[in-house]
């Protein structure tokens, strides 16, 4: 399933700036950045739960905001994309 993760981490303190970097690092372990604080992650149910738990361990719920959206398939009916950056197609084979 495709999950959209969006977050707003308070960076007024050095601890907040560290949280911001750690949240982004967790998201990079599961998907790709599509905007500064938005990631697309192709995960199964177990991975989604791990992602959620790892992110909740990093954020400060009193100061930060975290949202996870499940994108319902078929994607071509639920996703419109405009502009310079185009997301990676998770369904196609990637050769590295």
Automatic annotation (TrEMBL):
Mg(2+) binds at residue 8. One of its GO terms (molecular function) is metal ion binding. InterPro entries: CRISPR_associated_Cas2 (IPR021127), Virulence_VapD/CRISPR_Cas2 (IPR019199). Keywords: Antiviral defense, Endonuclease, Hydrolase, Magnesium, Metal-binding, Nuclease. Its EC number is 3.1.-.-. The keyword Metal-binding applies. It holds the Pfam family CRISPR_Cas2. CRISPR (clustered regularly interspaced short palindromic repeat), is an adaptive immune system that provides protection against mobile genetic elements (viruses, transposable elements and conjugative plasmids). CRISPR clusters contain sequences complementary to antecedent mobile elements and target invading nucleic acids. CRISPR clusters are transcribed and processed into CRISPR RNA (crRNA). Functions as a ssRNA-specific endoribonuclease. Involved in the integration of spacer DNA into the CRISPR cassette. This is CRISPR-associated endoribonuclease Cas2. It comes from Candidatus Methylospira mobilis.
